[in-house]
């Protein structure tokens, strides 16, 4: 069917329940999120109320078991919800992805008692989470992290500084990776730290190029005491917990990137239909139409790849390689598509009066977070060519 | 004893769609998607809040409308109502507000009620009189157009904001209440609510179940008849008046020609 302007993304969803969920997501995105995006991103305002609304609607626990208050949705469905949210506002889409990542450790590796005690509130939407892996001097080389947790009777005392923490200062709980043993990946343990813990404080948020509504801040742990019942998984298991969460988190970033690219393409389409030059609407010029076709094709390819990886995950098969590929392809696509969207809109695209430049600034960060795209290539190469030789 | 709340909800054509009349000059309900009238979402929201505040309450959502009107019930059920009642009958086609109120009255009595909640007006018919007629038919007090409502000890109280004054109103239950779009934003259904709604009971009734004769309703039973309807003229590009000394005069002439002055 010929389309006049942007159409909703055609999605193949596995159940009627999933179609209803996407309908609910679009409804909330259009009515509660879209109207405030431009102004709040400009002002760097974090929309806590939006997270309350989507939490009450059940969007903060989608891929987790119903038994613990989750929505019991496969990744194939959850990721498409993320994509729709990110297309309207990345701060929300990425926020949901990070929150979901922060729940992962406890949901997958927590004891029965820990899950019963905490998960309902974490997945039920009242609480917002943060995920603390990176540090000022431990970025891509996360295993070199130095934040230390020292045992003191049946408590742990956490000391150190985490960096780049999404929701730093606004989160209700922090999933923290800290060193409890020797150097290297085997000396790291995961903890669930409440946001109001004594000694926990956040620095002023970083002044970022984009994604300004989402606070990214250093978080200081100054003698923060947590009981051993808040240790998640075994001592020394922390890094493998973190990495397993990251495989899923990367799919979240891939879905967000696809949303950002789709949002930019839709804006460009709208603009080209309206704007006339040389006596014709811009959308009539073949040179521009070919760009649109390439953009749409790249987005669809990225979507297909992240969904293929998600289906592997849902089937319980290994998906780390495909997740890295999806993160790489979708975020590089988002960078290219959003750059082209600005180009298609000419001088208007370069101004803050249109959302194209915001999408472009948002796309950039997605090539950096949850493993830079260089790191994704390292991961993919290791999967297909084996580890680098040590000599 | 449990507080029995019945919320009357209407399934209306999406106002953002391209709406038309059918050949018999009734609303063409097949041409555009339908949905739960937005103004009735406020009534559902107030019912949920009243039920939350009560020790024990049961909310029934009731609609009179075609097959697809079940969607309106599902939406209300996914917001948190307990059960649905759908009155559907081919003979209902073209029923006016008088007939609709008869059907609703019989259905409300069939369900059993302490409080009937309505929206302030439907978004398609927009007559805004149904709650009053319904109360009359039921023989119970009507407290209409409330922007604040509460129930306690068998009494409903509320505030009606008029142009000149705000009134505090009170009535004994059972009663019919309508609420305005100022009564408080309706909640979104939750994903769990949507799933739970699929399992909630919806009772289907036809005219004979309610003991209503076909000639009391439908186009035949309607007190009014639509003789003719014309499409509102398309918006034109407008007339541009270039001021070359005569601008003011031309403007005045235009306004006179359009009968504005
Ligand atoms: C001239 C004329 C032509 C009409 N043509 C048609 C037609 O072609 N097709 C047709 O279907 N109807 C037709 N009707 C009927 C009309 O659209 C409504 O169904 C009428 O019965 C109620 O009027 P309203 O929607 O303006 O109610 P309002 O008084 O504006 O509604 C107030 C409240 O009453 C409740 N309510 C109203 N209707 C219902 C309902 N059906 N079920 C449950 N709750 C309800 C809601 O709570 C609503 O918020 C016609 C009416 C007239 C007068
Ligand atoms: C907005 C934002 C939100 C974030 N949110 C979180 C969060 O919630 N939680 C969290 O823990 N972290 C978060 N991060 C941190 C993010 O994951 C890191 O920024 C990322 O892992 C890169 O680390 P770095 O910034 O220290 O860069 P570095 O590791 O210093 O990298 C600098 C450059 O060197 C390249 N590089 C590094 N090592 C290699 C190598 N071996 N081979 C080739 N190239 C290499 C990188 O690709 C990059 O181009 C966030 C970051 C940002 C910007």
TrEMBL record, chain A:
Residues 130-224 form the Acyl-CoA oxidase/dehydrogenase middle domain. This is Acyl-CoA dehydrogenase family protein. PROSITE patterns: ACYL_COA_DH_1, ACYL_COA_DH_2. It comes from the Bacteria. Its cofactor is FAD. It comes from Streptantibioticus parmotrematis. Residues 236-384 form the Acyl-CoA dehydrogenase/oxidase C-terminal domain. Pfam families: Acyl-CoA_dh_1 (PF00441), Acyl-CoA_dh_M (PF02770), Acyl-CoA_dh_N (PF02771). Keywords: FAD, Flavoprotein, Oxidoreductase. Residues 15-126 form the Acyl-CoA dehydrogenase/oxidase N-terminal domain. InterPro entries: Acyl-CoA_DH_CS, Acyl-CoA_Oxase/DH_mid-dom, Acyl-CoA_Oxase/DH_mid-dom_sf, AcylCo_DH-like_C, AcylCo_DH/oxidase_C, AcylCoA_DH/ox_N, AcylCoA_DH/ox_N_sf, AcylCoA_DH/oxidase_NM_dom_sf. Belongs to the acyl-CoA dehydrogenase family.
Automatic annotation (TrEMBL), chain B:
The keyword Transport applies. SUPFAM superfamilies: Adenine nucleotide alpha hydrolases-like (SSF52402). The keyword Electron transport applies. The electron transfer flavoprotein serves as a specific electron acceptor for other dehydrogenases. It transfers the electrons to the main respiratory chain via ETF-ubiquinone oxidoreductase (ETF dehydrogenase). Keywords: Electron transport, Transport. Heterodimer of an alpha and a beta subunit. Residues 24-214 form the Electron transfer flavoprotein alpha/beta-subunit N-terminal domain. InterPro entries: ETF_a/b_N, ETF_b, ETF_beta_N, Rossmann-like_a/b/a_fold. Gene3D superfamilies: HUPs (3.40.50.620). Belongs to the ETF beta-subunit/FixA family. Its cofactor is FAD. This is Electron transfer flavoprotein subunit beta.
């Amino acid at each position: 069917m010929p389309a006049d302007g942007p159409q909703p993304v055609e999605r193949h969803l596995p159940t009627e329940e999933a179609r209803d969920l996407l309908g609910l997501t679009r409804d909330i995105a259009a009515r509660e999120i879209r109207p405030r995006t431009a102004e709040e991103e400009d002002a760097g305002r974090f929309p806590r109320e939006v997270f309350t609304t989507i939490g009450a609607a059940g969007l903060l626990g989608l891929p987790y078991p119903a038994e613990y208050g989750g929505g019991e949705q496969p990744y194939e469905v959850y990721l498409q919800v993320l994509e729709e949210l990110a297309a309207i506002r990345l701060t929300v889409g990425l926020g949901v992805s990070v929150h979901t990542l922060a729940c992962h450790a406890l949901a997958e590796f927590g004891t029965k008692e820990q899950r019963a005690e905490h998960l309902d509130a974490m997945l039920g939407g009242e609480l917002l989470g943060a995920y603390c892996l990176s540090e000022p001097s431990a970025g891509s080389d996360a295993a070199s992290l130095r934040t230390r947790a020292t045992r003191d009777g049946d408590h742990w005392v956490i000391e150190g500084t985490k960096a780049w923490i999404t929701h730093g200062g606004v989160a209700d709980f922090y999933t923290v990776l800290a060193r409890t043993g020797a150097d290297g990946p085997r000396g790291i343990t995961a903890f669930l730290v409440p946001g109001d813990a004594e000694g926990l404080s956040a620095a002023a948020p970083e002044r970022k190029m984009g994604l300004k509504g989402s606070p990214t801040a250093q978080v200081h742990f100054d003698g923060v005491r947590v009981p051993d019942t808040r240790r998640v998984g075994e001592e020394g298991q922390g890094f493998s917990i973190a990495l397993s969460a990251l495989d899923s988190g990367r799919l979240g970033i891939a879905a967000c990137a696809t949303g950002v690219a789709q949002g930019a393409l839709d804006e460009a389409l709208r603009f080209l239909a309206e704007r006339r030059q040389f006596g014709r609407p811009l959308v009539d010029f073949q040179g521009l139409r070919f760009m649109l076709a390439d953009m749409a094709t790249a987005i669809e390819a990225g979507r297909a790849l992240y969904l293929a990886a998600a289906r592997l995950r849902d089937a319980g098969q290994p998906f780390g390689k495909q997740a890295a590929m999806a993160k790489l392809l979708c975020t590089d696509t988002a960078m290219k598509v959003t750059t082209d969207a600005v180009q298609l809109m000419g001088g208007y695209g370069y101004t803050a009066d249109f959302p194209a430049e915001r999408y472009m600034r948002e796309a950039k960060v997605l090539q950096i977070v949850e493993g830079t795209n260089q790191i994704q290539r390292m991961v993919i190469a290791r999967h297909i060519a084996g580890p680098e030789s040590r000599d | 004893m449990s507080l029995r709340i019945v919320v009357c909800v209407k399934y209306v054509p999406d106002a953002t769609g391209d709406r038309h009349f059918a050949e018999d000059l009734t609303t063409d309900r097949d041409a555009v998607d339908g949905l739960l009238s937005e103004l009735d979402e406020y009534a559902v929201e107030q019912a949920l809040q009243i039920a939350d505040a009560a020790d024990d309450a049961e909310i029934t959502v009731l609609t009179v409308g075609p097959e697809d009107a079940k969607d309106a019930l599902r939406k209300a059920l996914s917001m948190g109502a307990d059960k649905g009642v759908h009155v559907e009958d081919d003979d209902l086609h073209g029923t006016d507000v008088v007939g609709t109120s008869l059907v609703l009255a019989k259905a409300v009595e069939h369900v059993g009620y302490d409080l009937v909640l309505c929206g302030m007006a439907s978004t398609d018919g927009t007559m805004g009189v149904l709650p009053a007629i319904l109360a009359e038919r039921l023989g119970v007090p009507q407290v209409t157009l409330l922007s604040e409502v509460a129930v306690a000890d068998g009494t409903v109280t509320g505030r009606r904001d008029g142009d000149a004054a705000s009134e505090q109103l009170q009535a004994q239950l059972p009663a019919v209440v309508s609420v305005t779009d100022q009564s408080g934003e309706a909640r979104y259904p939750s994903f769990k609510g949507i799933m739970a709604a699929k399992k909630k009971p919806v009772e289907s009734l036809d005219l004979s179940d309610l003991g209503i004769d076909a000639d009391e309703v439908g186009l035949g039973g309607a007190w009014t008849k639509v003789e003719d309807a014309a499409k509102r003229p398309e918006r034109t590009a407008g007339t541009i008046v270039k001021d070359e000394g005569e601008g003011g005069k031309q403007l005045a002439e235009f306004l006179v020609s359009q009968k504005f002055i």
